[in-house]
């Protein structure tokens, strides 16, 4: 359910930026959702569409990129993708946060956030002087 | 350039790409830092208590308030969807209570806590318990500005509660395993739960309690450094 909160933040940021740029309409909103964030892209898109209704964001295409989850290992220095262990409990929820090389607890280096990347806007050109 | 717009026929130069790179979680983080600064200015220590519905968050806080209210000036902020049941339970101890009804939201966020802080006389407080909405997923994503974060889990939530919700334990300083008196009945190995918690966060403190009888509550107080 916290997708509504995140979608509201997305909507507010996008609307503010679009208005600042003098957009007449927003054609595309591009976001990056981290693989290790707890945000579900499908629910995010649903709420965003609901919030956009009746605004210049209505009808904008929401493009969701997945930002890969990366770990940094304080023990062996590994820096890279997180592996998913062969444990059914993990497969339906979340990947583990252990270093795939040495098994130590890793620190999340990437993929925890949710970022508004860019907007594609339509601007009506001022005619005349 | 072709546009799908039926309002305006897009001409060259009418479609613009705007680069932003703005975090959607940043606004909450910033407000959380402001809450922390405000609490620090008044010397109030805040503890965010998270956990599932029915894990025993209110029971734990009630036990803590009862034992600490003579040593500290305590207040309580309750996050709940619509009721005041929790707020009423703590108000019985005679401490200031602020209820935040989140409506349909599944977690507290820093903005709601900021509003609650405005309704408290911070200058006359030492210790603040903030009870999050019953949920093991969403609160992990929304820091409130508290100094310590506590997760309460109960053995009644079954043996997989930790492996299924690792994030909330990563974000916490203390895990309280409650209702340990029911472990045999539930067929849950408390030692295994504790090992699961430590596997996610080796630095975390783990305490076993039965808040109904008060067992282990003194250990929680010690673990919190109170």
Question: Mind explaining what this structure looks like?
Answer:
- Chain A has 129 residues and is of the alpha+beta class.
- Chain A is built from 3 helices and 6 strands.
- In chain A, the strands form 2 sheets. Chain A has a 3-stranded mixed sheet with strand order 2-1-6, with helices on one face. Chain A has a 3-stranded antiparallel sheet with strand order 4-3-5, with no helix packed on it.
- The longest helix of chain A is centred in the N-terminal third of the chain and has 18 residues, at 3-20.
- The relative contact order of chain A is 0.26.
- Chain B contains 9 helices and 8 strands.
- Chain B has 226 residues and is α/β, with parallel strands linked by helices.
- In chain B, β3 (74-80), α3 and β4 form a beta-alpha-beta unit.
- Chain B has a single domain (45-223), classed as P-loop containing nucleotide triphosphate hydrolases (Rossmann fold), CATH 3.40.50.
- Chain B has helices at 26-41, 57-68, 85-91, 110-118, 161-164, 166-170, 183-186, 190-200, 217-223, and strands at residues 15-23, 45-51, 74-80, 97-101, 127-131, 148-154, 174-178, 205-208.
- Chain B has a 7-stranded parallel sheet, with helices on both faces.
- Chain B is globular.
- At the A-B interface, α1, β1 and β6 of A face β1 and α6 of B.
- β6 (114-122) of chain A pairs antiparallel with β1 of chain B.
Short characterization:
Helix content of chain A is 26%, strand content 28%. Chain A has 129 residues and is of the alpha+beta class.
Percentage of residues assigned to helices of chain A: 25-40%
Strand content of chain B: 15-25%
Low-confidence stretches of chain B: 1-7
Spatial order of the strands forming the largest sheet of chain A: 2-1-6
Choose one word for the global shape of chain B.
globular
Give helix and strand order of chain A, one letter per element, not per position. Answer: HEHEEEHEE
Query: Would you tell me the structural class of the helices and strands of chain B?
Result: alpha/beta
The Rg value of chain B, from CA coordinates, equals 21 Å
- When the domains of chain B are counted, the total is 1
- State the assembly state of the protein chains: heterodimer
Give the end-to-end Cα distance of chain A, rounded to a whole number of Å. Answer: 50 Å
Task: Supply Rg of chain A.
Answer: 19 Å
What percent strand of chain A? 25-35%
Strand order of the largest sheet of chain B: 4-3-5-2-6-7-8
Total number of beta strands of chain B:
8
Helix content bin of chain B? 25-40%
CATH architecture type of chain B: 3-Layer(aba) Sandwich
Distance between the termini of chain B: 66 Å
């Amino acid at each position: 359910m916290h997708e509504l909160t995140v979608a509201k933040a997305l909507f507010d940021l996008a609307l503010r930026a679009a208005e600042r740029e003098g957009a007449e309409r927003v054609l595309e909103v591009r976001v990056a959702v981290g693989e290790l964030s707890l945000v579900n892209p499908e629910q995010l898109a649903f709420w965003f569409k609901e919030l956009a209704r009746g605004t210049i964001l209505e009808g904008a295409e929401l493009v969701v990129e997945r930002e890969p989850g990366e770990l940094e290992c304080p023990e062996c220095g590994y820096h890279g993708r997180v592996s998913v262990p062969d444990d059914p409990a993990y497969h339906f929820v979340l990947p583990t946060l252990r270093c795939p090389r040495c098994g130590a607890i890793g620190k999340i280096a990437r993929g925890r956030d949710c970022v508004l990347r860019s907007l594609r806007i339509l601007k009506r050109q001022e005619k005349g002087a | 350039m072709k546009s799908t717009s039926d309002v305006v026929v897009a001409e060259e130069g009418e479609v613009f790409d705007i680069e932003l790179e703005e975090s959607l979680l940043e606004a909450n983080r910033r407000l959380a830092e402001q809450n922390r600064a405000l609490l620090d200015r008044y010397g109030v220590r805040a503890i965010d208590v998270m956990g599932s519905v029915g894990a025993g968050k209110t029971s734990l806080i009630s036990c803590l308030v009862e034992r600490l209210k003579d040593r500290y000036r305590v207040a309580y902020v309750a996050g709940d969807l619509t009721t005041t049941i929790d707020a009423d339970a703590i108000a019985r101890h005679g401490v200031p209570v602020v209820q935040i009804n989140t409506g349909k939201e599944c977690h507290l966020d820093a903005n709601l806590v900021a509003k609650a802080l405005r309704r408290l006389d911070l200058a006359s407080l030492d210790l603040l318990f903030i009870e999050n909405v019953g949920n093991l997923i969403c609160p992990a994503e929304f820091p409130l500005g508290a100094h310590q974060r506590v997760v309460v889990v109960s053995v009644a939530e079954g043996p997989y509660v930790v492996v299924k919700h690792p994030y909330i334990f990563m974000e916490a300083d203390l895990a309280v395993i409650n209702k340990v008196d029911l472990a045999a009945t539930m067929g849950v190995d408390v030692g295994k739960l504790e090992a699961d918690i430590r596997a996610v966060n080796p630095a975390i403190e783990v305490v076993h309690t039965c808040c109904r009888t008060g067992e282990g509550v003194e250990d929680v107080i010690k673990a919190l450094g109170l």
